[in-house]
Design brief:
2 domains; 3 helices; Glucose Permease (Domain IIA); eight-stranded antiparallel β-sheet; three-stranded antiparallel β-sheet; 14 strands
């Protein structure tokens, strides 16, 4: 398989989640390869190339960082599935559903944490991967034309959908959950490498949206909506 400053966080927070490795394991191969190349070039006195490899290794460590988060435990809280900036909030109709959804679009730059998290405690009903293009993730058409994975969560009778969308540079979508899994709010479920976009769809008549365009959000911690 080919492989986005929010002041709306819930005031009621759990303690920071249990300790977790500070770097996502998916980053280790890149880190070790770059470190190895850096040492090889250094041994051959190719200092500039060696330092470039070491710099890139340090950046990969930074990119794949996986910080702990404080998960809001307020009743009905729907948390952000990703770090990034809100680039659009729209009302849309989705195939297979008879009610409109509010679509919240999150753009992740290469400087954001790229770990994706579950927006609420729920059952995973469906995971659907689609091949596609690799247009810039902030472009409107990226939502429908780019490669993506769509995850349908269901809490009670309420569906919530999260889409992991590849961007211009991102060529690797990782989703670690499958249909039938029971997930917790804020639980890590995947990541997208090197710049991307994540969208969350919430039934328009079931929730109050708590973010606006331009807000910066943190995955698992920032409040996106409160379900009624």
């Amino acid at each position: 398989m080919s492989k986005q400053k929010n002041n709306t966080n819930s005031k009621k927070l759990n303690n920071t989640e249990p300790k977790h490795p500070p770097i996502a394991r998916e980053g280790y191969p890149f880190i070790f390869i770059l470190l190895g190349l850096g040492l090889v070039f250094m041994a051959f006195s190719l200092q500039y190339i060696s330092w470039l490899c070491l710099f890139l290794a340090a950046f990969v460590v930074y990119f794949f960082r996986d910080p702990s988060r404080k998960i809001p435990d307020a009743k009905g809280a729907v948390v952000s599935p990703a770090d990034g900036r809100i680039i659009g909030i729209n009302q849309v109709n989705l195939p297979g559903f008879d009610k409109p959804f509010t679509q919240v679009n999150i753009f992740l730059s290469i400087f954001n944490v790229h770990i994706n998290r579950c927006p609420l405690g729920a059952i995973v009903k469906k995971v659907d991967y689609k091949e596609g293009k690799f247009k810039a993730a902030y472009a409107k058409e990226a939502s429908t034309q780019n490669e993506h994975t769509a995850i349908l969560f269901e809490a009670g009778n309420m569906p919530i959908i999260v889409k992991q969308i590849a961007g211009l540079i991102a060529r690797r979508i990782i989703c670690k959950i499958k249909a039938g899994d029971k997930v917790d709010k804020g639980q890590r479920f995947g990541l997208i490498s090197f710049g991307s976009r994540v969208e969350i769809f919430i039934p328009a008549d079931s929730a109050d949206i708590k973010v606006k365009q331009g807000d910066k959000v943190k995955g698992g911690e920032s409040l996106i909506a409160v379900v009624k």
